[in-house]
Amino acid sequence: MRTLWTIIKSPVTQFNVMLVGLLCLIGAVHNHAHYSMEVDADSYVRAWCKKNPDTCQSYIDNDY
Q: For the stretch 9-33, what's the b/e string if a residue is b when 16 or more beta carbons lie within 10 angstroms of its beta carbon?
């Protein structure tokens, strides 16, 4: 039990737990932003490029 407590108190373990927690938090906020988005970013860019064809000619091609 003493060895387990030593591992838990280790700064390396604490850093790894904080890093994984931060990545999970960033992922959750990122997913929430996608689910609550009113306009999809790709369709917004495509609509803008159709209004401004000289600015971004490569987005207008519908070959894909």
A: eeeeeeeeeeeeeeeeeeeeeeeee
DSSP string, 8-36: HH-HHHHHHHHHHHHHHHHHHHHHHHHHT
Under DSSP, the state recorded for 57 is: G
Query: In degrees, to the nearest 5, what angle opens at C-alpha 25 toward C-alphas 44 and 19?
Result: 125
Determine contact, residues 60/50, Cβ cutoff 8 Å: yes
Tokens coding 6: 């030593």
- Amino acid identity at 64: Y
Summarised one tens digit per residue, pLDDT across range 11-51 is: 999 999 999 999 999 999 988 887 776 666 666 777 777 78
